[in-house]
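[Automated response] Your request has been received and processed.

Submitted sequence:
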Amino acid sequence: MNRCVKFLASLIATCATGLAMAQVPPSANPAAAASAPAPATTVAGSSANAGGQAHALTAEDLSSFLDGLVPFALQRGDVAGGVVAVVKDGKLIFARGYGHDDLKKGTVPSPATTLFRIGSTSKLFAWTAVMQLVQAGKLDLDRDINDYLDFRIPPFQGKPITLRNLMTHTPGFEDTARDLITTDGKPVNLEHYLKTHLPARIYAPGELVAYSNYGCGLAGYIVQRVSGQDFDDYIEQHIFKPLDMQHSTFRQPLPAAMSPMMAASYKTASDGKVQPFEIVDPAPAGAMSTTALDMTHFMIAQLQGGSYDGNQILTPATVALMHTPQRTDAPGLNGYALGFYQENRNGQTIIGHAGDTDYFHTDLHLMLDADVGVFMSFNSAGNEGGAEVIRAAIFDAFLDRYFPVAAPQLPTAATAKADAARVAGWYLASRRNDSALRMLYALTQTKVSALPDGTILTAAFMHPSGAPMHWREVGPLKYRQVDGPYHLEFVAAANGDIRYWATDSLPPVMIFQAVTGLHALGSIELWGTLSLLFLLATLLSWLCGWLVRRHYRRPLGLDAAQRRSRLLSRLGVLALFVDLVGWLALLVAASADQEILLHGALTPWLYVQYVLGVLGLLGAVAVVVHAVRSWMAPRRGRWVLAGETLLALAAIYLAWLIVAFGMVSFSVRY
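Generated structure:
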């Protein structure tokens, strides 16, 4: 079960930073879980130099630093290879490949010519295209996007979606992963995808952040419609060409001339099996293939007022607007600019974007105050945490080496113990799927625990050492990581109830909403487990009783109507048991192979489960009816009546569970 929860966590978090859902998942989202996949394993920690003397950011020092760090990290994470590039003050100061882009050939990736898939980092190019058209007066950030589309997205709670909502991931869409990544090599059609994969809405526009690949696809389609050019053509002409990005493309499959340049991708380096080229749909959300040097051109343009080598893709005013914070879901924590998310740390103003497919993992960071850009990409998922841990740890170490800052010594709040008890409970990520996977996402709830010393524990968020993160209250509902740089903040409603919490220990792509009562995972675990055990005991006693009666040739002491009622009740128990075990089997299957979600293979099994859910509900009725008849029948023993009553209560609870968590929704939007 722990492995299953970790998978769905990646579906909503890992994939959150990238395409995949796990990406429970989460994941996930992604492209892959990815990108989900929440429920989020993250990285915290700092080098021994944190708060010490800053090293000079030079090619020589970077070479010494990264050459010592990256090869070991690749080996430790079971990752085949990667590239790292750094720019400063409008110039490239470091670019190097590490490990292998092809394990069989033993070749080292070239920053200039080896292509990497950058997953959701691709979104920055879609957002840049939007800002070009805003700058030209052809798009309005606050206008209903239906004005730019040839199909209609209904308003939700009376509010239309705007481009600003899309660029801050607040359109209110639920997360979806189906058909997000395929490996069949077939070209994709953006218009067709958007018109056939419209997600359900679970929030009003602008209400809460919930990362959306579909939303970026919409933005790319708007660029296509308003410009009159195919999205790929537009990006090539208006961004790649002026930035001299000669080895970059959104086209899928790759153009013939570029195909030999693509780095091989792997699950792990030790496995060594080359994985197929991933087709991402919608393409604007994560389809780009590029080199490290091409990405340095983009970083320089973003840092230098929209200009690279004298070619202007955006005006300085538009770049400044694009980098300006637009919203945060917790005051003082990182939020969103336009397309970029904030990563402020070590006293630096930082924006960036990560990206994940199933096998490639990327990070881009722009340090606006220091005029520094960092890009890295890796061609393997690696062992548990692998490439994701590597990329976060490298940037953490980079910041602590070149921009060290002493952690503030803030006293623990006097309300620590009281507030720890107040915030303890279960929380569910805002980035999730409610239509088809509500039950599976419910199992990804993360628990906040209050400790006796007034600190709190978030078990799903891990330190690189493998220990869960601990947090200490330093202000009203504001927490700082114990022995770490990150923050966590709870947001309360007007009546004082906790609504959600957010943290800067992962990108601000979602928040974690409080879950109470029977919907909380603790309640589901308790009552669901007890109910399932009672069903199992009933089925075993039914079988054993039949065998005993058969052996001793003793008939059941019930009349025909009672026997028929009892039979229907036991068949109802069987239907309930099979349905719930079936959902657990789906969870295990998804954790073992997230492609079940991404490639749509889950669809027929969902329909099977929905039918079983209906049978389970009918079975619950039969169980309750038999319990009532047992009380009305003469000469039934007290233990029999107690057993039938408890069985009826278990059936009622499980019937509620089936309805409340959409296990009969017959939806295959996931």
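Summary generated for your ticket: DSSP finds 18 helices and 20 strands in the chain. Confidence is low (pLDDT under 50) at residues 1-46.
If you did not submit this request, please reply to this message.
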